[in-house]
Write a structure and sequence with these properties.
single chain, 6-stranded mixed sheet, elongated, 4-stranded antiparallel sheet, alpha/beta
């Protein structure tokens, strides 16, 4: 569906993208992760034809993007992080206006609007002014606009950013619905629990380079790491210091002053020695639990170690 080979982008001497490569299969939801400034938005702006690039190749359905730009750009839909609307219009007027400037016939415009409003669950609010919409409603309207021309691949830049939990849930449900329709989705997000819920594959972009790319389930299996969560009766900074010095402990993170998360290299060693290695002091353990890491844990470890787990 989409293939990117050694994509480069520079502004003067500053390299934003350093020969990144990845491939997205049709009908999948692809998560594109990275910290602010990593190059995510630059990548999306290049792939949607908004800005040019300095080197590399882009293929959509096997066709070169530069050579077939005007044909291929019609297959793309794009929802920016902060979409701007004519707030005096209602959703029906806005989509009707979009259909007219796109050259649709009147009867097809009406059919497509009804179809899209049903998809994004805005049918009951179709005649309300967009200016009175919540942030979540505006984001869903943005998806409807991006989907109007029936794109084969939809780019979503931080679609749940600044949404409340209800708005995020609605957007995730919508993305899962697109997946069921075999629409390819390129999702950029910093909310890793959302990515974990809907994505089939993910890539992590760090300082202009892709440092990890794989199917989500493969990532979890490959980079699984045991984590022991402990809560103590009193402050436990001295316990944290003691555990950090053990060679089979990779990292210790404190949450507040009484909770520890201990990342270990060897679960068998940890099971037999962890409790024995705790300093002897008048500080009782209130809870002790083993968990396995999620996508956020993998992301933080990769970025912290610059791609080396």
């Amino acid at each position: 569906m989409l293939k990117v080979v050694n994509l480069k982008k520079s502004y003067s001497k500053f390299e934003v993208l350093k020969e990144i490569s990845f491939e997205i299969k049709k009908g999948t939801v692809y998560g594109f992760l990275g910290q602010n400034g990593a190059g995510k938005s630059t990548t999306m702006n290049i792939l949607t034809g908004l800005i040019d690039y300095n080197g590399g190749e882009i293929y959509i359905n096997g066709k070169d993007f530069k050579a077939n730009r005007f044909e291929l750009i019609k297959k793309i839909g794009y929802l920016t992080e902060n979409p701007v609307f004519y707030n005096y219009m209602n959703a029906y007027e806005y989509l009707s206006f979009l259909g007219e400037i796109s050259g649709y016939k009147h009867d097809k415009i009406k059919y497509r609007i009804d179809e899209l409003l049903e998809l994004v669950k805005l049918k009951d609010a179709a005649k309300r002014r967009v200016g009175g919409y919540s942030r979540g409603m505006k984001q869903r309207l943005g998806v409807a606009i991006a989907m109007f021309n029936r794109p084969e691949i939809l780019f979503l830049d931080e679609p749940t950013s600044a949404l409340d939990p209800g708005g995020r849930m609605e957007m995730m449900d919508l993305i899962e619905g697109l997946k069921e329709q075999n629409i390819t989705v390129f999702l950029s997000s910093h909310i890793l629990s959302d990515v974990e819920r809907v994505c089939d594959e993910v890539s992590i972009l760090h300082q202009g380079k892709i440092i990890l790319s794989d199917k989500l389930e493969e990532l979890k299996n490959k980079y699984i790491q045991p984590i022991y969560d402990m809560e103590f009766e009193k402050k436990c900074s001295s316990i944290s210091d003691a555990l950090t010095r053990l060679d089979w402990v990779q990292n210790v993170q404190m949450e507040g002053s009484k909770k520890l998360s201990v990342y270990v290299k060897d679960i068998n060693t940890a099971n037999s020695r962890l409790l024995k290695e705790l300093p002897i002091e008048d500080n009782h353990i209130l809870s002790f639990q083993l968990r396995k890491n999620n996508l956020e844990d993998i992301f933080m470890r990769m970025v912290k170690n610059d791609g080396d787990i």
